[in-house]
Amino acid sequence: MAKDESSALGPSSYVDDALYERLIGLDKLWKEPGDPPPPELERLCENLIKCEARLIDDGQLEQWLTLFSRDCVYWIPARPTSDPRGEVAVEFHDRRRLVDRIARLRSGAAYSQIPPTRTCHLLTNIEMFVVGANEIGARANFLIQTYRLDVYRTLAGWCGYLFVHDEGAWKIGMKKINLIDCDQGQENISFVL
What we know:
By secondary structure, this protein is an alpha+beta fold. It is built from 5 helices and 6 strands.
């Protein structure tokens, strides 16, 4: 990732009311998945989910970001049923903010991540479904085991994904991380989930 990628991106032009409406619509689809995609697309998208988890666990955040589309969203709601238009989120990032977040984690000044949190993602119950032309949805349950400063911790929940065909490849267009205890006080989760 270029050092000045964040400034080159400029302000987000795609985070608008239409995007928020889309997120609400996807939330319903993630809870009632429809028809599965063709087997080759299902394998490809499942491999993207697994690759994403591995890159996070290995601390390869710059490579992790390449899995996301140019107009991506990374969202961790603060309530089990949430509306991003009027509620605070644990995290809500567009691509520009993800670039900034990675730069901050790499800066040596992200004190909540000195030393960095180590993670191990376990994924299960992966379901895929067709959303529209060139869009595949997925839902996967997760456990994330973390270790930092002699403390082990487990995070659990499910992720909703939207895969889009972007610039000739399948990418993650949206990732929603639904912690089962999202409405409770969270300890240090300044790492990438």
